[in-house]
Amino acid sequence: MTNHTSFPLPEPDAGACLARVYEAVPCRTQVELAEFLGIRQSSISDAKKRGAVPAEWLLKLLLMKGINPVWVLTGQGSRWLQPAEQVPILLPLATSGGVCTLEGFSTEVLLKELLRRALHTNA
Hints:
Largest sheet: 2 strands, antiparallel
């Protein structure tokens, strides 16, 4: 079983977070969303019960559709960080060497960097 890093939702109703995901992706049911994310349908129910969305889902939504993880978690800011067709294969990360590939970085590190940048640009 995969250990997922989750970010607690700032609202008591985890369904609000998933409702924002449904607004942004071409899915209407948990089965469709699970297929879209490449996960089991029961994982969506589990996330609702835990009140947290796994970081891997947020990263997939960002990379696949350009969906802003901060917007998913809070409803604040822009829904899109950039159009999905313009999501680059390389993402610049805060490193001394400049631009890095995604390889070698954990999902948690990547998501923290994305959230840091999103919060910095919205400040």
